[in-house]
Structures are given as structure tokens and as C-alpha cells.
Amino acid sequence: MSDRMKNQAKKNREAAKGLRNRGKDDAAQRLEDRADELESGRVTDQTDTILSAWSWARGRR
After folding, report:
1. Cα separation values, 26 from 2, 35, 43, 59, 60, Å
2. What is the separation of C-alpha 38 from the centre of its chain, rounded to a whole number of angstroms?
């Protein structure tokens, strides 16, 4: 798991706490579920691949 994904999972959990404090349990649960997915390794980080493809495409025009 990349550092980006770890950081995003942490942010999701922090946001979920704030939502729970405001009584939005369903939305908080969705954020926590997403954080679990990010930490599980089932999701792959494609950021670098997409950025390199974007850079390549911009250079070709």
C-alpha cells in the first residue's frame, strides 16, 4: 500500500469521526468502509500511471 493510500485512509477515518459527531452515521460508515478498502490492498494506486499518461498525451498535441 502506498503512502498516498495510507494518508487517504487516515483522512477518511478523521472525516468519519466528524460526521458521527454530527449524527451522520451512514455517511461515516461509508467513509470507514472506504478506508478499510484502501488499507486492505484490494485497491491499487494508479496515480503515477495516470499522471504519466496525461503528461505524454499533453506533449503529443
Report:
1. 27, 14, 22, 44, 45
2. 7
Residue-level pLDDT at 60:
66
Whether 5 and 38 have beta carbons less than 8 Å apart is answered as yes
Sign of CA dihedral 36, 39, 40, 42: positive
Assigned C-alpha cell, 25? 452515521
Total-model pTM: 0.73
**Regions of the chain short of the pLDDT cut 50:** none
The three grid cell numbers given for residue 47, joined into one nine-digit string: 496515480
Residue with cell 505524454: 56
The three grid cell numbers given for residue 44, joined into one nine-digit string: 491499487
> Among all chains, which residue has been given the C-alpha cell 478523521?
14
Contacts of 1 (CB under 8 A, 6+ apart): 38, 39, 41, 45
